[in-house]
Amino acid sequence: MKLTDKLGQISRRDLFRVAGTYGMSSTLLAAGSFGGAMTLANLAKAAESTYEKRFAKEAKFTLKFGAAGFNARNLLIERAGCLEFARDLESRTDGEIRVEFIGDNQICNQGSCVEKTQQGIVDIYAASTQNSAGGAPYLNILDYAFMFPSRASIYYFLYSPESQRILREPFEKNHGLKFLFSHAELRGIQLGLKWKDAPTVTKLEELFGTKNRVTGTQLGRIAMQALNLNPVPIAWEETLDGLKQGLIDGAETWASAVAYANMSPVVSQCVDLNFFCGTEHTAMSAKAFDSLGGDLQDAVMESSYLAQVHVQAANEAALVNTVGYSVPQLPGTIFERDGVRMARLPEAELKMAEEMCSPEFQPDLWTEWRDRLNGWSGGMDTYDEIYRVAREIPKETLAENVEPRRWWKA
C-alpha cells in the first residue's frame, strides 16, 4: 500500500515473525511510533526496544483491548486513536497497566466487541457505535437523523461535560461500559461499481429505490426507510463482497471506513449525504475500570483525553491527505487512486433529505425509539438535548478548531 503506510515495505508474514518474538502488542505499538516508512530490521529493533520498556517491571493490571479489524496499517487511514491510547496509558502509568492490543478481528469484530467486553472476555474495545448498538442499544442516541450538522459538532458534544449526563453516564448505567473517546465523521451512501459509469449524483431522488447496507443501528434504519434507501442489514466484514458482487447498490458508512477496509476498489461514488454520525469509539468495561483504583483511573481518563485530541487533529488531516475526501482530491490519495468520486449534494438537496427523515420534521417516525431511549436516559429528551448542544457552535466551525475539554470536569 502506498500513501503514508509506514508498514508498506513489510509483509504480513514478516510482521507476524517479529510479533512471534516480541509479541503483537509490542510490535504494533513500535510500528505506530515510527515517523516514516520502515524496514524489517528497523521494525524488529523498535519492537525489541518497546518490549524491553513494557516488560521492565511487572504490570499490576493487564487489559485486553479488542480492536475489531484494526491494525497498525489501517489506523494510519482512519485515525481512531487506539494505539496512541494504549501507548500513552502504559507510559503514563509507568508500566503498572499493560495493554494487550488484539486487532484484525482476532478476538472480536465490529458486531461482537461490545458484547465480549460486557462478558469480560476483553476489557476495552474499539468499534463503531452504530455496529455496537446491537449489543448496547443506548448508543442509538447518537443516530437521530441530521442531529449533528457537522463533524465539528460531534467533537464539540464529545468534549462537552453535557456528554457525561446525556451519553456517558446512562451508557454506563445501562450497559456497564465507559465511553472513552471517538473519531467523528458523518455517514453517506457509498455507491458500488454499478454506478461507476453513471453521472455523479447531484440529486437526492437519484438514490431513491437503491438497496443499501445498514449497520446495527435501529435509528439509522428509520432514516434510510424514510429516504427510500432500502436498508439491508449486512455485517461490516461482508459488505465488501456485497458491493463487489452487486448484491447491493451501496453501503451506508463514512469515507475513511471505505478507505481503511480496502473497500475503495469496489466503491465508485462517495455521496455526502451526512445524514447521521459515524463514530468509531473506544469504550471500557466499567467493572475493569473500577478495579484499577483512583490514580490508575485518572490515568485512563487522561490517556483518553490525549487520544481524543489526537484523533480530532489526525483524522481531519488524514481525510484530505490520505483518504481523498476533498474536492479536488489530492493526487496519490486512496480515493483518487481507486477512482472514487466525491458526490457532494447541494444544500437544497440535503435540506430536502432532512425534511423527509429527521425528528425535527417527521417526529412520528421516531416516537417508539425516542421514548425508549428517553426512558433509558432517566427521563430526558435525548434528541432535544443533543440537538441543542450540537448547535452551541456555528455550523461553519472547522472540526480541527473545536476546543478540547476534559469532559468529566465541569
Structural class: alpha/beta
Name the CATH class: Alpha Beta
CATH topology: D-Maltodextrin-Binding Protein, domain 2
Question: What is the mean predicted local confidence, pLDDT?
Answer: 92
Which strand-content bin applies to the residues?
A: 5-15%
Query: What's the architecture, going by CATH?
Result: 3-Layer(aba) Sandwich
Q: What brief labels describe this structure?
A:
410 residues; alpha/beta; disordered N terminus; single chain; five-stranded mixed β-sheet; 17 helices; D-Maltodextrin-Binding Protein, domain 2; six-stranded mixed β-sheet
Question: Would you kindly provide a written description of the structure presented here, covering whatever features stand out?
Answer:
With 410 residues, the chain is of the alpha/beta class. The protein has one domain: Bacterial extracellular solute-binding protein, family 7 (D-Maltodextrin-Binding Protein, domain 2), CATH 3.40.190.170. Helices cover 42% and strands 14% of the residues. The chain contains 17 helices and 13 strands. Helix 1 (12-22) runs parallel beside helix 3 (40-54) and helix 4 (82-92) packs antiparallel against helix 13 (294-323). The protein starts with 11 loop residues before the first helix and ends in a 20-residue tail after the last helix.
Report a brief summary of the structure:
The chain has 410 residues and is an alpha/beta fold. It has a single domain (57-410), classed as D-Maltodextrin-Binding Protein, domain 2 (3-Layer(aba) Sandwich). 42% of the residues lie in helices and 14% in strands.
